[in-house]
UniProtKB/TrEMBL annotation:
Name of the featured protein: AAA family ATPase
Source domain of life: Bacteria
InterPro entries: AAA+_ATPase (IPR003593), AAA_22 (IPR049945), ExeA_AAA_ATPase_DNA-bind (IPR052026), P-loop_NTPase (IPR027417), XrtA-assoc_ATPase-like (IPR017466)
Domain AAA+ ATPase: residue ranges: 42-205
Membrane-crossing residue ranges in chain numbering: none
Family annotation (Gene3D superfamilies): P-loop containing nucleotide triphosphate hydrolases
An example Gene Ontology molecular-function term: ATP hydrolysis activity
Amino acid sequence: MYESYYGLSDKPFRLRPDPHFFFGSKGHKRAMAYLEYGLSQGEGFIVITGEVGAGKTTLVRNMLSTLEAQHIVAAHLVNTHLNAEDVLRMVVSAFGLPAEDANKSALLSRLETFLRTCDAQGKRALLVVDEAQNLSPRTVEELRMLSNFQTDDKSLLQTFLLGQPEFRTTLHSPDMQQLRQRVIATYHLGPMDAVETQAYIEHRLHTVGWNNNPSFTPAAHAAIYEYSGGIPRMTNHLCDRLMLMGFLEELHEFNDKHVDDVIRDIQAEFQPPPAAVAAAAPDARHSDEAELAAAIASYPDAMDERMMRLEKSVVSVLNILKKIVAQPAGASTPSSQDNND
């Protein structure tokens, strides 16, 4: 909705990961270097961790978008609330193989045949596992066992594990020693600093044709960074709401007051109902800002859908108001004419 008002070709701050908007901050460039190093090795595990919304999935999708020329067959596993056998079934399915009504031995056989076929065709197989913090140690071990598929001189499957910081706890547990021995690189993706956050915002705006309309004052950028902490998804959510408010109020410059107003609106939406607050323990009555950030960052698709519904509703209301304003004074509405007949 605000795209046309500001002359933009698309929404610059969608919450879902989109490699088209990839921004190479210092941390993201370093993480990408680790992924590229892993690809050059052609074996073992690469582990990338980062906070919720730090940009891990966007990072990998950006990498996957460049893999065709390298003759790599990649599968991306995102649903990780699975037991050991289910994760094997999901891996087989992610590579496009039939996985229904098959026992574990049949699944392993299909996967091995597929991997050897890829190797015979001069292709390499790469498995990317997102949200690895949800994997149980037994499930992680099941993934490690898949690395045993190999020829005399090479591995047939390479795996990237992406997860939140708590995955490192799993990785360093005593029963993960065999996996740790196969990890060839690991990197933690931290938040952007204030300068990078401003550059990130401007990069996404420029990607959709921004011409400094709307403009952001230095104080606005400072307020955005203070709220988001340099987390890309938090930054996207706040800036998307800021742009929407700018459209509704016909603003062409944002300052820190505008940012603070939007932050208050967001925080009010996530406040518990009064009855829940009254029933809560005294030390739990005040919402924790970190939990709020995690709640927003954990549901990008749902938030996008919610924003789209909100925008459609606002457009409908605006159209009705325009018709009312444009109607000549004293003119009767269709309903009043019906009543007079």
